[in-house]
Design a protein that fits this description.
Helix content is 57%, strand content 2%. Strands 1-3-2 form a three-stranded antiparallel β-sheet. The longest helix is centred in the last third of the chain and has 33 residues.
Length: 317
């Protein structure tokens, strides 16, 4: 019998972004955009601070979406499915390849506290495939501290640091987006960042009215575009939270029916990861037992198969 802490399940539905904020996607003024971004972030704030059972899977799913958008910026073709494979097929401690490393950078952003250090920036640039001088990174840390100490509203601080990165290194826009989420979390005093803005970088918020050219960090209208993008990003994150909350309720409801000795390990991983390999082995679970367990969870409609193939299958909420 699997025993789960009742505190990991919450009957309260995740918050949603107000409809009036979403309806203003084409805000008439910069002030409107900033006001709507504030409302959207206020809705997301309780989720960013809470630790529901599914928060790990939620953060990693957001990281995957940002990593997939990063591929376009990096001139690569991997989609979410290919990124999952790059990460899951890589043996522990081995190089996951350029795409997998970028995915890893977004995963780490979502896992670590909202703190900045030269070592953290160095690791981030390395995973994003960028070579950066140590002295320049130390200077960037100082600039981030200056932005954080300026008491600017968090969306504007995020926009400012992205613009500074691109101003320093036009080839490092991806790093600018990564840092923007980190600085946003600092400004909002979130315990850990949420990967949000990169997933919106090629969306309508960052398109000019004439010709549809993409607005890059530092260009005219970028701050307003960040505000508009954050409304959509917060709404998407809240919808994903609601979806994972429902799926978690179903998973926890069927947990008492699972008799496999290592079922608790699998449930823990499903609640904390974007995807779990069907060939998983643990101290309490053989590969054969894991396959049977995932088949049982599928029969109970408690997990989804994410890979769409017969071999090396991946499962998740």
């Amino acid at each position: 019998m699997i025993r789960l802490d009742p505190a990991t399940a919450s009957s309260a539905a995740p918050p949603t972004v107000p409809a009036w904020a979403l309806a203003g996607g084409g805000s008439a003024t910069d002030a409107d955009a900033a006001f709507q971004a504030g409302a959207a972030l206020a809705s997301l704030d309780p989720l960013a601070r809470a630790q529901p059972a599914w928060s790990g899977a939620w953060r990693q799913r957001l990281a995957l979406k940002c990593a997939a958008a990063s591929m376009r910026l990096a001139g690569r073709a991997e989609d979410e499915a290919a990124l999952r494979d790059a990460w899951q097929l890589c043996p522990a401690g081995a190089d996951p390849g350029p795409a997998g490393a970028i995915f890893g950078a977004w995963r780490q952003l979502a896992l670590q506290p909202s703190a900045v250090s030269a070592d953290r920036l160095a690791k981030g640039t390395e995973m994003l495939g960028l070579a950066w001088d140590d002295a320049a990174l130390a200077d960037l840390c100082t600039q981030i501290e200056d932005v954080a100490g300026s008491r600017r509203p968090a969306p504007f601080a995020a926009a400012a640091i992205a613009a500074r990165v691109v101003g320093m290194r036009p080839d490092a826009e991806l790093f600018g987006w990564w840092l923007a989420d980190l600085v946003l979390a600092q400004g909002l005093r979130w315990p850990r960042p949420l990967p949000l803005l990169m997933a919106q970088a090629f969306g309508p918020a960052f398109r000019t009215e004439a010709g549809g050219r993409r607005i890059r960090p530092g260009e005219k209208g970028f701050e307003r575009a960040v505000c508009v993008a954050l409304v959509q990003a917060a709404a998407d994150a809240c919808r994903l939270a609601a979806e994972l909350s429902r799926r978690t309720e179903k998973l926890l409801a069927v947990a008492p029916k699972l008799r496999a000795k290592g079922a608790g390990d699998v449930i823990f991983l499903l609640l904390n990861e974007d995807a779990v390999a069907g060939s998983l082995t643990t101290k309490n679970l053989s590969r054969f037992a894991a396959r049977r367990l995932f088949e049982r969870l599928q029969q109970l409609d408690a997990v989804r198969e994410l890979s769409g193939r017969a071999s090396f299958r991946l499962f998740g909420l």
